[in-house]
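Note to self: the last two entries modelled the partners one at a time, which told us nothing about the interface. This time every component goes in together.
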Amino acid sequence: MEEKKVLITGGLGFIGSNLARRLVHDGAKVTVVDSLIPEYGGNPRNLHDIKDQVAINFSDVRDPFSMNQLVQGQDYLFNLAGQTSHLDSMENPFTDLDINAKAQLSILEACRKHNPEIRIVFASTRQIYGKPQYLPVDEKHPSHPVDINGVNKMAGEWYHIVYNDVYGIPASVLRLTNTYGPRMRIKDARQTFLGVWIRNLLEGKPIHVFGDGRQRRDYNYVDDVVDAFLLAATRPEAEGKIFNLGAPEPLTLEDTAKLMCELIEGANYEKIPFPEDRKAIDVGDFVCNYKAFQSAFGWEPKVDFRQGISKSVEYFRNDLSHYI
Amino acid sequence: MEEKKVLITGGLGFIGSNLARRLVHDGAKVTVVDSLIPEYGGNPRNLHDIKDQVAINFSDVRDPFSMNQLVQGQDYLFNLAGQTSHLDSMENPFTDLDINAKAQLSILEACRKHNPEIRIVFASTRQIYGKPQYLPVDEKHPSHPVDINGVNKMAGEWYHIVYNDVYGIPASVLRLTNTYGPRMRIKDARQTFLGVWIRNLLEGKPIHVFGDGRQRRDYNYVDDVVDAFLLAATRPEAEGKIFNLGAPEPLTLEDTAKLMCELIEGANYEKIPFPEDRKAIDVGDFVCNYKAFQSAFGWEPKVDFRQGISKSVEYFRNDLSHYI
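The predicted structure of the combined assembly is written out below.
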């Protein structure tokens, strides 16, 4: 990526900022776009120590005018800006639609008009599959989104594939599972429950496990996800394709909580009944099959959950005030 | 449906008006909503002879205020308004998004707030499957839309399923294949190529078959599709479900053209090269598997293509000036 020009939407956010840091380290010329909407993942702290090595452009992906400018001259677009909260998508479905669907179309139109050679990777989500019909869930699993966020992310990813197929704008889609690590949003559960669990741990509060805690989940450490984005962007075989990410060893929610509590003296968890609004859109057990991406590009998560969550807790312990 | 209150979006359009006529005949109290956008399917002629027996409300489904009023007190909503042209969706992707996705969400929000008991049937399309991976295409076939219309219709249908699953607003989705018959748009190819073929036949012009004419297609006569909508609306087992429609005997495009030419003395067809813009979004052979709907509700197309196209040509011959 040396000397390459790279645009990252959502670049002050969790995954975007980790990706930006890696790219800067690798010698790329990075521009990040972020609107810093308070409820979303953007946080200036995420790039504060390298802010002189990146261009930071404050704007909203819903603004087609700024996107028309920003895509020009870029070699790569990592398209990560999004509304991630499932609950918020039910309360404000039109906001979710505008960000996760309409803005994606407008970014693609900006690329079509101003930079059709740009190489795009779009961050999607396993949420579009809904409740699994079988496990682990591969890319052939039918889509059956259970909330508005899932529907809009599905539209967002397919716009990318249509623009790849019809206009030849090279685009790949990664469907992410629960990603965690330094620089994630930990204020609340808007970026997976792991965020707020880390916060509770560090504040000496119990972790809340909904229901019986037996649902299985898979987790990717953010550095592994950054690897995946770079692979998807640089391999021509990934163009026009959709790939799951995932992890080899899923954990139940209760085991996840136990393992996290072991990291901090005196930490504990409580099982509490499922809140009604979450129950209605919960997907039960979820484990992604990532063999397609693994066998195509040799990608394999390198950081196991114990190691990754320990690094994450350490990161936030040292910088908690900027994240709560 | 006797005495039932029924709202039909796109009710001056092709399928909407045929459905309205059936419902009026069956004693329902029908309100049709239509914006009569010139490029779409709405045509006042479609209900001119029964205009005193229906309430006609001119408004656009993108207008949430009118929809808030219109859904109140209705027993059924047949949600048929849409932008149907694949080519137009590529040229004006935001218009397609606003009508086929955003307006659907706003109709569902209107129902959630003002009439959550309303029974909804949404008209979707086989276009969301894209190029078939196998034939005939059943509902388990992966979705891989090849144009923006396919993406937005996919979002539109899943909003309905999410509102069914999360809020209990009973909704069913029918994925239609090529539907034809009296009252369709024949001005151009915006409502399947069959429309403009009928027009050319009646105006003594040759029918244009793109490419080698070997692609297979399946066709449903509109009366059969009206039957399907009424079944989907009245069977509780259809709630929250998505079903394909389809026909038992697919035809190649060339055989379709031949058969249509037999109906009119001296009519003929020409094979011409695929226009570039259509080729890019063409899906090749397409045949729907409608066994799920057939076995659940006993639905079977009653009108074969020869009979249906003959009725259609007869209809338009007698009233051509109102449709061109």
